[in-house]
Amino acid sequence: MKVKILDTTLREGEQTPGVSFSIDAKVEIARKLDEARVDMIEAGHPAVSQDVTEAIKRIVAERLDAEILAHSRALISDVDAALACGVDRVAIFLGITEKKLQAMKMTEEKAIEAAVKSVQYARDHGVKVRFTAEDATRGNYDFIVRICRAAIEAGADRISIPDTVGVTPPDRMRGLFSRLSKDLGAELDAHCHNDLGFAVASAVAAVEGGATAVHTTVNGIGERAGITPLEPFAVALKVLHNVDTVDLTKLPELSLLLEKHSGIPVSPLQPIVGENVFSHKGGVHAAAVIFDPQTYEAFPPSIVGRQREIVISKYTGKVALEDRLKRLGVALTEEELMKVLQAIKERPEVRSYRDVDLLELAEKAAGKKLEVQVPKKIEALVLVKCESNVYTTAVARRILWIRGVQKVLEISGDFDIEVMLNVETVNQMNEVLENIRKIKGVTGTNTRIILKKFNSDS
Question: How far apart are the first and last CA of the chain?
Answer without folding.
Answer: 60
